[in-house]
Amino acid sequence: MQWNEFLELQQCLVAWYKVFCQHDVDRSGFIDAAELIRVIRQLFGYQIQPETLETILKRYSRVVPPRSRCIIAFDDFVALSVRLRAYTDAFRRRDSLMHGGHETGNCTLGYDDFLRCVLCL
Q1: pLDDT-derived band of residue 89, with 50, 70 and 90 as boundaries?
Q2: Distance between CA atoms of residues 81 and 103, nearest Å
Q3: Dihedral (C-alpha) 94, 53, 74, 85: value to the nearest 10 degrees?
Q4: Measuring CA to CA, which residue among 69, 84, 81 is closest to residue 118?
Q5: In contact, 84 and 73? CB cutoff 8 Å
Q6: What span, in angstroms and rounded, lies between the C-alpha atoms of 72 and 58?
Q7: Running DSSP on this structure, what letter comes out for residue 56?
Q8: Which helix (H) or strand (E) holds 45?
Q9: What is the biggest distance separating any 2 CA atoms in the chain, rounded to whole angstroms?
Q10: Which of 5, 10, 96, 101 has the largest CB neighbor count within 10 A?
Q11: What is the pTM of this model?
């Protein structure tokens, strides 16, 4: 990694940390399920279904006792945010192309296109 690439990475991480702290309303040092719903709505503009939230939490959270609460640490938050941003951008491009420049929240993906979206991002 070159010095300028490191500086760019550092700037990105600082920006993500600010977002993380802004949405960590209870100042626990983690993002919980309720906070994550707000992050996704505000940053990406989507209202996700409870099943989708559960899937995201299973993949990116750490379960802590005693109530088996799912929380997301900063490093996992960055990984999740980068992926969600890339997936959202790919989806929106396809949605807009299919509907004459208007986003409807729906698009059709062939299997190869789906794989390119999830494996390359």
Answers
A1: confident
A2: 21
A3: 10
A4: 84
A5: no
A6: 10
A7: H
A8: none
A9: 51
A10: 96
A11: 0.79
User: Do residues 121 and 114 touch, judged by C-beta distance below 8 A?
Assistant: no
Give 29-82 pLDDT, tens digit per residue.
999 988 999 988 888 777 888 888 888 888 898 877 666 678 999 999 999 988
Q: Is 33 helix (H, G, I), strand (E, B) or coil?
A: helix
The pLDDT assigned to 90 comes to 83
Where helices occur in 49-73 by DSSP H, the ranges are 50-60
- How distant, in Å, are the alpha carbons of 16, 73, 82, 118 from that of 67? 28, 17, 29, 33
Report the distance separating Cα 39 and Cα 18, nearest Å.
12
The position carrying tokens 């980068």 is: 82
Instruction: Tell me which H or E stretch contains 69.
Output: strand 69-72
Query: Distance between CA 57 and CA 7 in Å, rounded?
Result: 31
With contact defined as beta carbons under 8 Å apart, do 53 and 44 qualify?
A: no
Residue with tokens 């939230």: 53
Which residue type does 34 have? A
Hey, what amino acid is at 25?
V
